[in-house]
Amino acid sequence: MVASLREYRAKIKSTQATKKITRAMELIAASRIIKAQQQAAAAAPYARELTRAVSAVATFANVDHPLTTESEDPSRAAVLVITSDRGLAGAYSSSVLKESERLREKLRGEGKEVDLYVAGRKAVNYFSFRQQPVVEAWTGFSDRPKYSDAREIGNTLVAAFNVDPDADTPSGSSDDDDAVDPARAVDELHIVFTRFKSMLTQTPEVIRLLPLEVVEGEEPPAEDELLPLYEFEPSATEVLDALLPRYVNSRIYFCLLQASASELAARQRAMKSATDNADDLIQKYTRVANQARQAGITQEISEIVGGANALADANAASE
Amino acid sequence: MAEETTLHVELVAADRVVWSGEATSVIARTVEGDVGILRDHAPMLSLLADGVVEVQTEDGETWVAAVDDGFLSVALNRVSILSEDAEMSHDIDLERAKQELEQAKQAGSDDEEAQEAVRRAQARIRAVERSA
User: Fold this and answer.
1) Whole-number Cα distances in Å, B86 to A1, A10, B82
2) CATH top-level class for B2-88?
3) Which residue of B has its CA nearest to A60?
4) Domain extents for chain B?
5) In this predicted model, what pLDDT tens digit does every residue of A191-227 receive, in sequence order?
6) Could you tell me which residues of chain A have a Cβ less than 8 Å from any Cβ in chain B?
7) Tell me: the pLDDT tens digits for B56-72?
């Protein structure tokens, strides 16, 4: 009895220690979410201005750009999966990965090869465990992405997209069965990330970034704000050439920021329920321990009483 | 009245707004050369070269910023300067910028990235000197 009482006490202690950790993580995540949201708000003006500029060029200069033209016969798609570097965030990473598996199935169903690009250690582990080749991986910034991270990813992806499209053989269907040729251009780029809807809901989402189709801004320009007739320097094509990759980078940055806010929110929630569970456990163990202690005491009393009675009986017999 | 003599200027970096306010003139370096913008400038969208942007505010103050290549868009007396990385001159540490220039120069001038680093460092130093 005494031994099990000690056991319960040890369990209570260790649960309390765990609770302290999860509680601290919860608080850290909560304060970081605010920072992540501020970061997202700070990035909004750039995205807005860039969107405005892109739509200005797109409206007034009828230029075809490789980044905006649909491939006639898309045979290869790149998928960028954005997950977290660390776990302890509930189902955050696994729901993104599930979504990306679904997207891969769908793309394969359409006869496209899928190139994987991943951000976040969780996705790297997931795919390397399943021995699925990943074209490129980036890690180490999932909960605090910087613009330079987005730029790095964006440049790689745009480069993959821009591999000389004329080098492709025109017949796509026969290509599909061929071995993977890393030099071939991808025709589409999809991003799987988690959109931060509110503190309570974050949903994994897929967007198709390339070829760019709709120029969607965070907020559409006001109706009365007519776009003026711009002069382009040096030329509309060159401006567009420089603008579009940046636009892609800024979209990726947006996704990274959303993902980081979602990750933190998911972590906060997971840690909150862990803390609550620890509370429940502590309560349960405390009750059991009390019971065990009480049982021990009761037993001791009955032993003493029994012993005293036996002594009294023995004394009475000897008299 | 003030509204009719000034431009609304926004200097925006990728992750924050570096400066925004009313100004009487903006001087920036585009790929085709320096351009000065006053009120009622024709709408324009142009590429910036690594360099210095000067903003003259209504009260005669001059703000100088170093930008790495980005865009300048002018329309309806709104000037937006977009750059992935922009810094106001008073935020730049001159000593550090000079050190970086030295490092960048030593790193070699043959590859494009190194040259870009040199240009950027030079632009930052120029920005500080211009504002002094």
Assistant:
1) 71, 57, 8
2) mainly beta
3) B45
4) 2-88, 92-131
5) 999 998 888 888 998 988 877 764 444 444 554 455 6
6) 39, 42-43, 45-46, 49-50, 52-53, 56-57, 146-147, 150-151, 227-234, 238-239, 242-243, 246, 249-250, 253
7) 888 878 888 888 778 88
